[in-house]
């Protein structure tokens, strides 16, 4: 069936949908990208480790509430329409993100700082819970059946591109000012910038027409009066929702967050890689890996969604421990030779907003180009920074890139897989919930759970137990219970399960 709208072609639909979704992901992820600084600003500094875990927990809260956003906005999208629902989520996300950049620090307003951050993080999570399902459904309902995987894969790039843009904006802001100024107030700029991006995206999206399939249903009076009851009260549809969760999105979620967010967290907090270099490593890997979303989306139209997603989970589960062990070994100083005569101590003094900063840096250089700096600011507990040499930097970029390949395998085809499971009248609601439970809870909780596992077992690699276990469980369920299908000729046909 030709579902094209004569007033807008598929590329207009993809551009408008993707631009808005990218900005929402940007808004959502700058919080995680700046988690170390936010821990200092919004939580007591008496226990830095506990403050960081609390920040990760606040970050995770935004994921935990995503399923509730999927229910609220999914219902709205199936009753009112796809277009206006994801316009609303865009404005909520942008306003919440901008407001986080305005919150005074813990030192200024005390316990109200983390409370306000938590409230706004909840709003972000609710908004994102309604955004993705709407954008994916909107694009899918404009796409020809034999290219649905390819066209929806453009939406799949936006999550990674949003992270990439957030890292780029943070790096650009950091490079324009001193470390002290960035730590003092400059970190707020990426949050403030979101309001302009959101307004631009809103202007682009407001010109879109409603999905043709939904418009046809609405004109015929066939839209669902109770999408929640039809989605989760109907035994057969509930079976599909559970299969989508435990056989696909759960494993996809942990692979996505391991290959990007946990990789960044591991670089910064376990390996102690210097802030700018760690972000450059992740951003470079994402830059090279992002086109593969389109490749695997296209392949899913040819060979099926299941084969690609299950292969991605399997390879990821097998590879994570050796990959992270190889990453960790690059900062094993017992394997390196120090250049003793280059050891030096540097002292600097600067002022930002009336605050005087006295810093001491003890610097060690190694023959492979690695530089280790121990930094003490205003006599606080010293921190360690590692800057890798060129060859090792390239090696770590490659190791992160391999993880991004796994991400593209499981994530590229999944939008098409989900939209093809459910009928048009309840698609927004039905696909959004398993997606956001799989990604929001199983995936979003990964940084906090992994950090706790590392603390519990005092082992750098212990955090990987969680994503490997979840990926294997999902792989088994998916292989056993999901039957392959590709390029379904119509949304209304019953999928094989």
TrEMBL record:
It is found in: Cell membrane. Pfam families: Sugar_tr (PF00083). Signal peptide: none annotated. It is a multi-pass membrane protein. CDD domains: MFS_ShiA_like. The chain crosses the membrane at residues 12-38, 50-73, 85-103, 109-129, 150-173, 185-204, 240-263, 275-296, 308-327, 394-421, 433-454, 460-482. The keyword Transmembrane applies. Keywords: Cell membrane, Membrane, Transmembrane, Transmembrane helix, Transport. Residues 13-486 form the Major facilitator superfamily (MFS) profile domain. PANTHER family: MAJOR FACILITATOR SUPERFAMILY TRANSPORTER, SHIKIMATE TRANSPORTER. This is MFS transporter. The lineage of its organism: Bacteria, Pseudomonadati, Bacteroidota, Chitinophagia, Chitinophagales.
